[in-house]
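Form 7-S
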Amino acid sequence: MKPSSLVGDQKRKNLRDLLEQCRDLPGEVWECGVYYGGTAWVLRKFSRPTKTLRLFDSWEGLPEPHEKDNAHYKGGFKADYDRVKGFFKDAPNVVFHKGWIPDTFEGLERCKICFAHIDLDFYRSYLDALGFIYPRLVSGGIMVFDDYGAPQCQGATDAVDEFFEGKETISCRGDAERTAQSHYIQKGKA
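Output:
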């Protein structure tokens, strides 16, 4: 049985296409905001089998919203941790990090990341993830923001815009044809 996802077919295909651009880069693959594991399944399936895939989620739903968050609520998107973990029981390179961001990043300061999929919905969660992941993203690495531009995730959009203002990136704003509303950046050369 495969995990379920709220992400549509085109968005999953685009995620796969972006991930493939990072296959030969050094570093790990990370997903923040796993829910029922649908996009994590795509990341696992299309990553090199030797790459570590780290999955971060509270599995308790969303945290307390910030004043910039406009639609979702605390506890929304709660998922069954044991069920999701079961989908990856035969995948030794998949590592689960259960808890709240940024606390779950503790001890991972030396990691290098080639690809990150961020699906956290809320402003503060996005800022915390960006602040930790971006400095560890290798040159040429890609970060995909699932919630960017979604009307119900204004806080996520604001966080991405604020964080990347003035940073050297190749910024690719999504459109319906290319990224099905996703936004991603590719880290510029150091």
